[in-house]
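Here is one chain, start to finish.
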Amino acid sequence: MAGWLAPLAGPVELGLLAQWSAFIVSVDDGFDRHGQSPAQVRTVLDQLMDVLDSPDGSRYPASAPPAVRALADLWERTRIAARPGWRQRFCALYRDFADATCTETRRRARGVRTGLDEYLALRRRTITVLPVLALVERALPPAAELDGLRDAAADIIAWTNDLRSAPREEGEGTENLVGVLARHHRCGRSEAAARARAMLAERMDDFDRAAHGERAAPIRRVRDGSLAWQRETHRNAAGPGTAAEGRERGVRALVRHLAVAIDPAGHVDDRCGSRVLETALLLALLRDQGVEPGERKRLARFLEDRRPGASGIDALLIDACLDPAGTADRAPDIASGLSVAVSSGTAGRGRLKSVMLNTVLHLLCGSALDDGDLPAPAGPEGITTSTDVHLLSTRIVHAHACGRPHAVTDAERDRLVSLLSLGRNRMLWEASATTQLLGLHAVRLFRPGAPVLEEGLLRLCLAVNTDDGVPFLDSQDLWLTAVAGLAFTGEAGLAPYVGRMADLVASWQAPDGGWPFATGMRQTDVDTTTRCMEFLQATDPGRYRETLDGATTYLTGVAGPDGGFPTWVRGDPPDLDMTAGAILALAPRAARHGRLLAGALAFVLDAQQADGTFERSWTVSESSAILRALDALHAVPAADTGLAARIAAATARSVARLLDTQHPDGGWGRLPDDDSDVLSTAQAVPVLARHGDPLSLSRAVAYLLRQQDADGGFTSPPDQVGPRPLPFDYPVLTDIHALSALRSARMPAVVTDRTVPDPPRSSTPAGPPRSSSPAGPPRSSSPPRSSGPASRSPTNWSALEAGLRGGLLRPE
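Its structure:
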């Protein structure tokens, strides 16, 4: 927290600020969570104020309450570096916090309901932002003229906290901005949460208009640091902050739901779901180290709860972790039977995937490793940081397991420790629990006392979700923000947030011109870069021209000679999804990159299977890959009639595939034999809206609206994978795709002048996937684009219009 609030401070100042932050938060949360009476709260706060008013804190004996002794120690060390007059200012602010807290406690005990204006004024005083700001500024000139800016910062932080804590506090009977707004406006909590989000946007704008000059910078850093602390530590679970209400279907309810998923700084705020792989690896590492028994119980409970109904891979991992002695001998044979599934969609890297699985099983239960599977050494050039850690870890684990530690050099071991020591800009190393866990398991074998191991375990324990499991990633906020921003553009209820989202994305462009998928990461990738480019181009190409120029240079620099684009670095195998994304990102600059785009279009066309499907590399959904590919094929005008005919034929094949595989309920599954789900259906809808028939489209929209949750959102099995082919879940992605699908269904279909015969509808299984990139963090399909470049003309929409008249879409 201290590092976020004062990123320019030195170690001593950071240590003091960290202790102050812990003290203030613990006192404040203690009142909320321990059910203290108004008299008890007043007693504690009077004791603390007595410390602040005392000229000599050292007079408090060891018998004094712990909070009193802690504050006495802090206060003595704090006053030394403060400017004259600061002590009186801080005491006044803390006394105001104490009085407001007592008022709040009395009201709660009496069941008094607070009006909106009174609540806002009281909340600004109880959030403790103003005393913390005073601590950060204690060596600076007073600048009383910035008090309005400080108040705005306190409001922003308090209201953000209220939005996130609303579900918990509703159950506790605590007054909260969402509940007060619902009462004030006589509306449901979902609408109240959306109103709170709109208030936040206005207050952020107020702050930015007033924050000028160098003296305002520390206040801005505290504002942004506090928001980052809430977001990165997930102090309150991400989500809409509303209780379930009566069902309301359609775009308006979904927009209200999504508005609350954007934090004040513009991040799309969501939490990656827990997985078996990372949970088992952390449990095994804690067990081997003999530390954190409480955490080990939590992790084991998660695995036990997941065992019934687990997939083949998950069941094997759970058994290996919870019953290592009983699983070790049979684990390799079971794993070999899973090799086909593990190898699918991994671009010819099936052997490496199998080696990684066997390595994980060895770490979990001690199963034997084959000496012949030891990966060859690889230098750090031309590979990603994650791949480097994966290969180094696998080599080290294999060498030690096979009794040949000399097969790995000291330089390789040192490089692994060095890599893991650098990734401290996020809670998890490069945002990935998988990579960090594999690295730490390897470090434990040759340097069990390394500081990077102890710190890494702490970070991983802090990243455990509320369901006691470990997520795959601790963030993909840049990728999600770009994907969501493109879907939000043009939607009236979400458009006010798009500008701040775009500025956030632009500010995180890396020196190489690309973007990483999460803030604080170093490794950039093609997928996130193309999403960011699409978003900024759709938002304001003039404002972001220099940013787009740098991104274009990055993107054209990684293109392969065959027209394909890799996921990570130049020279990696090309990937269909990345190539389609590159076409979409470069389409506005097609005149300057005609030859490059022609090669990329040919790559996408050549990648189509006879049944109309495309390679599923970073997704498990057929419709996801089809949507991305067809969007790319229609993003730029065809250079000649031959290419136009190929694109029309490819489009017809994919549309025929979707029509053939649409289920009776109107939806699609990830594969034709899978049950219908929201994500797969939402990514098929835009294809039909642009290229298909209205009847199938109306059935699909009806399916989606039947699945809409009571709070306006949607729920679906995940379709992102990483390391491939293991799915992982960011629930907000389902809402984003659903929004884009429902919006696309309102638009007229694309009618092209490419006249070719429809191919026969085929159910031929897809062929082997084309080559792709190394194992690593996530990729999936884009939300549908709001429009296509092809000409549009009136179409027979009678079936869909009937649905509209029936109230399905509830157009605003």
